Amino acid sequence: MSMKVTLACQRCQTRNYTTTKTLANNNERLEIKKYCKTCGAHTVHAETK
Question: Which CATH number fits domain 2-48: 2.20.28.120, 3.30.420.40, 3.40.50.300, 2.60.40.420?
Fold first, then answer.
């Protein structure tokens, strides 16, 4: 089973992406390096609530 999570840029705090994550990894906070249109650079995007 999966749950939908929102990813936010760590530099500008803009919520840019949504993805899914399994419930088995629910206790870990997801962090992915992705492109931010607002910053214009590749930055770390972290899971938000």
Answer: 2.20.28.120
Tokens for 27, please give them: 């206790």
Question: Does pTM top 0.85 for this prediction?
Answer: no
> Does residue 25 surpass a pLDDT of 80?
no
**Cα Rg, the chain, nearest whole Å:** 11
- Cβ(21)–Cβ(31) below 8 Å: no
